[in-house]
Request: fold
Amino acid sequence: MHSWEIFKRLVSQIPGTVRLYHFLQRLRRAEKVARVSLDRGMYPAVSFSNLKEKYLQSLLSNESDTFVLYRIIGNDLVPRHRKGQSRDNLRFILENESEFPGCDKRFVVNRIVDPDEEKTIMRMLEQANRSYLRIPFHQDEYINVCWDIEGVPVEFAPCSPRFEALKPEEQGRVLMRLYRHKNNYVMNNNGARNAALAQGKGLAKWVLPWDGNCFITKQGWNDIVARVKGSPEISYFVVPMARITDNRLVLDANYRPDPVEEPQILFRKDSTLSFNESFFYGRRPKIELFWRLGIPGNWDQWYIEPWDLPGPQYAPEAGAFAYAGWVARLNSGQERLEQSTSQSSIKRMLARVEAVIGLLDHLDTQIRNVDEITSPSRRIDLGQICSISNHKSWWNSWLF
Reply:
């Protein structure tokens, strides 16, 4: 080993030197990342009186207001979630949530990779006499899912100078884009929502394809139903969500939080919009639909980064929505990440990146019978990567 290499290794053992080195590298290499604002102006004004007239002339207006509520249960993503939190929150819902007249409660068991965990969850649902839609995880399908190499500009390739100059959360977003297809298969975020939406439209007039940790209080449900029945001409209702740190809070009949978190959506059976399955868990899968519908929120100030999927234009239905009631999001098991602050939001994002990449790397290792888990910056399936000839030189420089 050369003396310079020995010196670097010795210096790296001094506490704080590695962090200082990366900080200085960012200062030296810092180049502004081109970010694009999703500035589309305002959508055309909506005539709610015309919507009402059209609805009253339709056969749908003669149907009673029935509801089907789905909760989508997926993989526990440690450290974003506590191991077992999906099962524990499901148990809490089954034991504590009220029955809602005119509402069929169903669940989606969504590509759970642990066979024992999946069996436990399905057994809990069967014992509670709850119907569920199972979307299975198949290793032989997953093994053929490729990397989204073309989604990341060459200059931001991991281990490149510009990548190293990015903030940790930006680096995380680059890596998440590379894992997009794998993420979309395993987490199947919008895929499961659309599966619930498609099935639900054949079961009820109103469909709620919601996240697995959603809990509705009796008063919250009454507020939702009253608003929907009061304006049935509207096809989309936005249900604000509150993030809670103690599940016992929702057992108080008088509990009414400030629902400031990313909302859920309720669809009428003849609605035409659905979730965009190109968008992946951890990077605006629901927000993309909010953007198309023109639902206002802090996401209107978010930028499109070079490695992002392009932002959408307004849908013809933009503006044709209303707000209804509220819903609680049960604790993920990681209380330090459940605060409604900007700092907690960044921490949740970093934990989400670590969790998603960790799970996918583990699956790759397990399926390919590799002895140790390796990160994408050290080991990649070269057969998949080099099949994209336009990026072969980039990936070769990254790997070697």
Observations:
- Residues 36-136+189-343 form a domain with the Spore Coat Polysaccharide Biosynthesis Protein SpsA; Chain A fold (CATH 3.90.550).
